[in-house]
């Protein structure tokens, strides 16, 4: 049932993509802001209590409904699984940005590509060249796909999968919402949310990197993972981007890149400005072709996940 739930949810999303600004997500964002207002008194343990309240309020009902439906009807439980996976997946949430940027670069329209990238990442893209636009768009696509697809897959495979898939997505959102906005940066309240998601994402991030290595250039992916993932301040993002770049034969990141933010300050050194002999990271400078390579890598990794899930489902069914 797990394999079919994911397959049906993916097919539905291809036919009817769920917009990132849909009412369900808007309600969760509003709820998170309310929880912050109730619990944020400037201490780490307040953030811990708020996180537990938020995650518990959204995951426990999902688990209870799933448990009840299993005892009523397998068809109803299957439909619930498909609905939850559809709401937690985000394979096409931001694909229109990526596709539009790719089309703009292919047609030589750098201004439109910068505008689209700025709208997607919500950061200043003024003065970026084609290589930098290609790099940032590809990096953001890999990280977004992991957090909206492969991470959800992993937790959905666990017992009470629908509830844990919701937990993963909510934890990912709280790690950003309670740390990245200007009014929340450097506040103690968001530290637990960031730490919690780090551990929740610890295994999924490494499985995603391994999948990229298997479906891409394995040797370069593993080499980059082992030796250059520390370039990023965000360890999980560093592993994914280092392995993904190695798998595609492209150099991602900068010397001290904070991958969660994707874009560095204007005075930061870029990959192109670093001497290649001291850098050592394998691969070519990102270009518009990198975006096409990114699409191919993501789809191959998705097919690998689905194939392994199918084998697992068959083994369980025959056992």
Q: Based on CA inertia axes, which overall geometry fits?
A: globular
What's the structural domain tally?
1
Mean pLDDT: 87
Q: Radius of gyration, Cα only, in angstroms?
A: 20 Å
Share of residues in strands? under 5%
Compute the number of helices: 14
Low-confidence stretches: 258-278
**Overall number of strands:** 0
| Fraction in helix | over 70%
- Structural classification: mainly alpha
Order of helices and strands: HHHHHHHHHHHHHH
Tell me what the structure shows.
The protein has one domain (2-318). It has 319 residues and is an all-alpha fold. The chain has helices spanning 2-15, 23-39, 44-72, 74-88, 95-106, 110-121, 130-156, 161-177, 191-200, 202-215, 218-228, 235-248, 276-279, 288-318. The protein starts with a helix and ends with a helix.
Describe the structure concisely for a colleague.
With about 325 residues, the chain is mainly alpha-helical.
Topology:
Layout lengths: L1 H14 L7 H17 L4 H29 L1 H15 L6 H12 L3 H12 L8 H27 L4 H17 L13 H10 L1 H14 L2 H11 L6 H14 L27 H4 L8 H31 L1
